[in-house]
Amino acid sequence: MIVTRFAPSPTGLLHLGSAHAALFAWRRARAAGGRFLLRIEDIDTQRCRPEYTTAILEDLAWLGLDWDGEVRVQSEHVAEYDAVIADLASRGLAYHCWCSRTDIEAHASAPHGPEGPVYPGTCRHLSHADQAAREGEKFAWRLDMRHALQQCGPLPRDPRPFGDVVIGRKHTPGSYHLCVTHDDAVQGVTLVTRALDLEPATAVHNLLQALMGWPVPDYAFHQLLTNADGTRLAKRDRAVGIRALREDGHSPAAVRAMAGFADPA
Ligand code: GLU
Predict the structure, then answer these.
(1) Contact 6, 22 (CB under 8 A)
(2) Atom of ligand 1 minimally distant from the CA of 18
(3) For the domain bounded by 79-169, which CATH number is listed?
(4) Fold annotation for 3-76+225-258
């Protein structure tokens, strides 16, 4: 059975772009008699707000979407992400990194990767004494990409351009890559749908699946809705917000059409 999901981060209200993503996943599930799940990706507690979660669920229901089972909320599953990081670390595949973004940018040989400068590996081989000296300071957990690749067979996509990606941080649970991949696996998602701009990141997810023995779902990538001038829709732009379109008297069907999913005639 096909299982899809919509996984918004509650950093703002639902807008036409996120409604497009939700409708894309919902239609794929419903057309095939499958399940459609909802997951709130709120691990970034600095930027996420519970009132946005409430508003997103309400706007989705107003748009006519229904979902199966309980909504999964990532901030309630921190121990699970910690356990994945501990597992990778115990196999020598993850290490502590104390470098700031500025440190990394200042490194002359850092090539540019899909997420900015590629980590030059400064902290990969720190001695125990050097590590002990940093005890108590903030750090990030990084995946040792080269070592990780030696532990798995051929992958559907090449994660090497990402270098040693961040998979977690002190005081915060896993990174986006780690949590999204873990949750798609535990929720039994068979078709991950996401915007085309996240296609490259999928290579990192495929690597984590191989390392952790998680199933590899199918993927479908959708367009990013843009403004008439081709610029990206912004969550703070009232004109494209579902809330505002509701208040302005548009019907759910009209808003679905604006989000690229007109009802069949
Ligand atoms: N939470 C992610 C976002 O809002 C999307 C999850 C995914 O499909 O990877 O962009």
Answers:
(1) yes
(2) 4
(3) 3.90.800.10
(4) Rossmann fold (3.40.50)
